[in-house]
Automatic annotation (TrEMBL), chains A, B:
<feature type="domain" description="Nudix hydrolase">
    <location>
        <begin position="10"/>
        <end position="141"/>
    </location>
</feature>
<dbReference type="InterPro" id="IPR036390">
    <property type="entry name" value="WH_DNA-bd_sf"/>
</dbReference>
<protein>
    <submittedName>
        <fullName>ADP-ribose pyrophosphatase YjhB, NUDIX family</fullName>
    </submittedName>
</protein>
<dbReference type="InterPro" id="IPR015797">
    <property type="entry name" value="NUDIX_hydrolase-like_dom_sf"/>
</dbReference>
<dbReference type="InterPro" id="IPR036388">
    <property type="entry name" value="WH-like_DNA-bd_sf"/>
</dbReference>
<dbReference type="InterPro" id="IPR000086">
    <property type="entry name" value="NUDIX_hydrolase_dom"/>
</dbReference>
<dbReference type="Pfam" id="PF00293">
    <property type="entry name" value="NUDIX"/>
</dbReference>
<dbReference type="Pfam" id="PF21906">
    <property type="entry name" value="WHD_NrtR"/>
</dbReference>
<dbReference type="InterPro" id="IPR054105">
    <property type="entry name" value="WHD_NrtR"/>
</dbReference>
DNA sequence: GCAAAAGTGTTTAACTTACACCCATGC
DNA sequence: GCATGGGTGTAAGTTAAACACTTTTGC
């Protein structure tokens, strides 16, 4: 270990974002067509480079804001990828972040402008560099989060039906869940408010809308109390 | 997002290691007295800077090897800390790794040479920069790992008693466990071999020694099958 | 009236927890 | 013979899993 910082190597540090969305059917990720070399024209995660004056969280937020027009998105640092030649152009490390956004909220113009597109997880194209690996790791992390705390409301509209919530969990976990057991578990958590309103778009009978209640959540789920879907 | 790598900022990237050990009583971490500025003379995690020619895992291994004389240690990347002024001398990011080593195996000479010392988790001194935060995060991660897979054999000698294993888990989780329930759960995993030998140092009756069986482990626990202590 | 999705409880099985006594040995 | 830590099983409680029928309403 040296005591002279000047003698040390400096590196380029990228931040790449796995942006998850949900369209009431499938879990999706937002990808862009890369418009510069290397690998121009191929699909890629959205990313950018860390600036001297920002933290990694700042950088991830900045990058996301540029593409989607939103800040205050749920976001979490995933892993630092550091294979020597992961970027053929130059030695670059990349810190992957994953983010959850409500697919209906984003600004379509911005997305067009960046040639971005939503892909279902299983239909996503092959990506540049180690981005496929990043996505895989992000899915696993999301899955682990999802079974231990009620994450994922960020992926739904403000008001949603139980069925939508269940479908979201099914697509995150990639398995079917029992309707009654699911509802019982969610209700046991006591973190939602049932509204008077019904959603009439998906059935003749209509289904009650629910809303996530942050206060209830903090009261009932904080302190790392976990549940199991 | 720019398309010219040269215009981007480069940063110093440190790797800091939280080294866990276990002395049959307490969970410990290995700290060093820093012998250079800034913060010379204060306690710190062991660390170093990433070199152009190595991955983060390489760097963490190199740093650990220098201090302990061991390679092939269990190690896992924890998080990338990036607060702007975390190092007052210069903008530096740090990727924290945590490692588990058998406290009896390490090379004491090397440790003396670096003025390193083992501290019980609750008696550790205040550390430089954001190193306390790193340690906290590492403990939480270790705890989460410990309850979901039988990690931690790296912290024990090759042959160990059930009591030792239980004490290790108790010190990781910072709670007392029931002796019978613990043994039943561990046995249910079927990943240990019970030896004929007994350890006579801790009681007159002596207690059977066990050994971790990698093959059994792979056969019975692989595929992310988790358990709960 | 019928198709399509919504809503609702109970029984069974699995797992987790709590708990207390005898054993072997060295001194 | 007694003090010390080692070893062992069961019953009760809790949690998770499996399961099917009725309701509403637009067409």
């Amino acid at each position: 270990m040296l005591n002279n910082y000047n003698a040390e190597d400096k590196v380029l540090l990228a931040v790449d974002c796995i942006i998850f969305g949900f369209d009431q059917e499938d879990l999706k990720i937002l990808l862009i067509k890369r418009d510069f070399e290397p690998e121009k024209g191929k699909w890629s995660l959205i990313g950018g480079f860390l600036k001297m004056t920002e933290t990694l969280d700042d950088a991830a937020n900045r990058i996301l804001y540029h593409l989607t027009g939103f800040d205050k998105i749920y976001m979490e640092q995933l892993y630092n990828f550091s294979k020597i030649d992961r970027d053929p152009a130059e030695r670059t490390l990349s810190v992957a972040y994953y983010a959850l956004i409500n697919i209906e909220d984003h600004d379509e113009k911005l997305i067009e402008q960046y040639s971005a597109k939503w892909f279902s997880i299983d239909e996503a194209p092959s990506l540049i560099f180690d981005h496929n690996q990043m996505v895989q790791k992000a899915i696993l992390r999301l899955r682990r989060r999802a079974i231990s705390k009620p994450i994922g409301f960020e992926l739904l509209p403000e008001k949603f039906t139980m069925r939508q919530l269940q479908k979201l969990y099914e697509s995150i976990l990639d398995e079917e869940l029992d309707k009654r057991n699911f509802i019982n578990k969610i209700n046991a958590l006591d973190i939602l408010v049932k509204l008077e309103e019904k959603d009439m778009t998906s059935s003749r009978k209509g289904s009650y809308l629910y809303q996530f209640d942050k206060e209830k959540y903090d009261r009932n789920v904080e302190d790392g109390i976990t549940f199991k879907i």
